[in-house]
């Protein structure tokens, strides 16, 4: 792929002062993510993966180094986090380990809420939410509340919510950790599909070695550093995932 990176992190460090000691959570890390790429951040517990995602998501500024979003340097040691809020809201979607859906809203209403917060009129927001859920294989679940959905379905609603504003960058922190292996695989296939179909740059932090084949690129972290970078083969999926397939109705 030759497109310019959506996200580029250059020589980034993040140090936390904890009592008398300084924790080097990240130490001179560089990564980049291009449109349509599914990128994995791997590594043992404590290796700096989540801290990397905080920098990428403009939720923390680096102690040293820079974060470029869509070709512009937006985050650096003196950058003000409150000024990054709007960029974050417009350009970055987040998915976490737990779906964290609002229990008294339906699946469609949960997704629509993300749009209404962005001043999209309620009716248009709901229509878009339903269309997005249908695309992600959840057309039969739009009117269900979260308690009626499986863990995998809830996570797919959370992914739809993160995609509602069509962000160019989607960041996911251990999104399959709470799922069994089959449902975890489906969620990873969905990320793969989103990267291919929408050109979204998707970054997934994971401990899970079972979906390594889906990544275009992986960065392996250890002690706050990138110790290995691997590139995959960029093969497109054989068929769109939102065509009827039995595994999408789990
Ligand atoms: N706010 C903080 N204050 C002090 N130390 C921190 C802070 N955040 C992270 N750390 C430390 O930085 C290191 C990297 O943490 P980080 O959460 O990025 O690792 P991780 O690879 O995501 O781990 P896990 O897989 O367990 O979530 C750890 O030693 C952690 O204890």
TrEMBL record:
Family indicated by similarity: Belongs to the ABC transporter superfamily.
Keywords: ATP-binding, Nucleotide-binding, Transport
Protein name, per record: ABC transporter ATP-binding protein
Recorded superkingdom: Bacteria
InterPro entries in the cross-refs: AAA+_ATPase, ABC_transporter-like_ATP-bd, ABC_transporter-like_CS, ABC_transpr_LolD-like, MacB-like_ATP-bd, P-loop_NTPase
Keyword set includes Transmembrane helix: no
Alphabetized PROSITE patterns for the sequence: ABC_TRANSPORTER_1, ABC_TRANSPORTER_2
GO molecular function, one term: transmembrane transporter activity
Pfam families recorded: ABC_tran (PF00005)
Keyword Nucleotide-binding: yes
Domain ABC transporter: 7-248
Species of the source: Acuticoccus mangrovi
First and last residue of the signal peptide: none
An example Gene Ontology CC term for this record: plasma membrane
CDD domains, A to Z: ABC_MJ0796_LolCDE_FtsE (cd03255)
């Amino acid at each position: 792929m030759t497109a310019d990176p959506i996200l580029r992190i250059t020589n980034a460090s993040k140090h936390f002062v904890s009592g008398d000691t300084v924790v080097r959570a990240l130490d001179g890390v560089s990564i980049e993510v291009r449109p349509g790429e599914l990128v994995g951040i791997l590594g043992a517990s404590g290796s700096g993966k989540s801290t990397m995602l905080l920098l990428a998501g403009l939720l923390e500024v680096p102690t040293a180094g820079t974060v470029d979003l869509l070709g512009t340097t937006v985050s650096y040691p003196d950058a003000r986090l409150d000024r990054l809020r709007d960029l974050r809201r417009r350009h970055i979607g987040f998915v976490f380990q737990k779906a964290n859906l609002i229990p008294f809203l339906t699946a469609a209403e949960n997704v629509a809420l993300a749009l209404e917060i962005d001043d999209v009129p309620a009716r248009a927001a709901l229509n878009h939410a339903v269309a997005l859920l249908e695309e992600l294989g959840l057309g039969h679940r739009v009117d269900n509340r979260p308690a009626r959905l499986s863990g995998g379905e809830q996570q797919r609603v959370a992914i739809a919510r993160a995609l509602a504003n069509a962000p160019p960058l989607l960041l996911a922190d251990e999104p399959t950790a709470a799922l069994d292996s089959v449902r975890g695989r489906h969620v990873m296939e969905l990320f793969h599909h989103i990267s291919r179909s929408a050109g979204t740059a998707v970054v997934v932090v994971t401990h899970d070695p079972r979906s390594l084949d889906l990544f275009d690129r992986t960065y392996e972290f250890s002690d706050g550093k990138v110790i290995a970078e691997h590139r995959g083969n960029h093969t497109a999926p054989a068929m769109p995932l939102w065509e009827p397939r039995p595994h999408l109705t789990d």
